[in-house]
């Protein structure tokens, strides 16, 4: 039964033909139009406005709380966290989204790593509050930051995640890239910010330590903020 019929039944318990016979065609058609209008108005959800901004130091624990909420307990035991320990994230690519009440609803972070000596961006964690999932915020943060990464001169991105989700952004399976165990190799994916950026880049994913002089050139002048944005989802 269509919602329209259900609605009509709520107004008049008899079926439509009987209703038209009892109340007249005009009254029924008017009632039907009114019902359709009510359903349309009721079903319209006002667009929610979200604001995205670079993560600030004071956002850190709020973002951690969001990750705790969105991921399974023990998330920090995952191998990717070994690559992040004691390494600052790539600040200009760490973004948060807040709703109109200033509640943090989504966050994304990136870390620098190396694969076979080449510089690579490790995407993640990315999470969207369960109440806000499916509204496009995850995709928005991923696209925004991948674009910014390209603008900042990064060439390739790596992540460990669900291929069906990340394929839409252009990620593909990286067969020759080994994350520290235990990692399901099928979930290791890469994206090229310039064509061919992953060609010939393979081997173990290595942590970038701050004692490495090269790190200075890796993060260079890139830790400058970029403009905040507002979106509707
Ligand atoms: C995964 C996540 C970041 C996606 O963000 P989101 O804002 O909910 O997603 P979007 O609105 O951008 O995209 C929604 C689409 O992605 C799909 N999708 C979401 N998570 C998915 C997943 N794990 N695998 C496959 N598809 C997924 C939805 O089915 C939907 O598909 P559709 O467009 O065909 O309807 C979010 O759901 C989340 O935080 N999940 C929990 C934490 C997590 O798993 N993080 C990723 C770690 S790899």
Automatic annotation (TrEMBL):
Gene3D superfamilies: 3.40.630.30
Domain N-acetyltransferase span(s) in chain numbering: 50-194
Keyword NAD set for record: no
Signal peptide coordinates: none
InterPro entries: Acyl_CoA_acyltransferase, GNAT_dom
Top-level taxonomic group: Bacteria
Key words of the record: Membrane, Transmembrane, Transmembrane helix
Transmembrane segments: 21-42
Pfam families, alphabetized: Acetyltransf_1 (PF00583)
GO MF, one example: acyltransferase activity, transferring groups other than amino-acyl groups
PROSITE patterns, A to Z: GNAT
Protein name (record): N-acetyltransferase
Upper taxonomic lineage: Bacteria, Pseudomonadati, Pseudomonadota, Alphaproteobacteria, Rhodobacterales
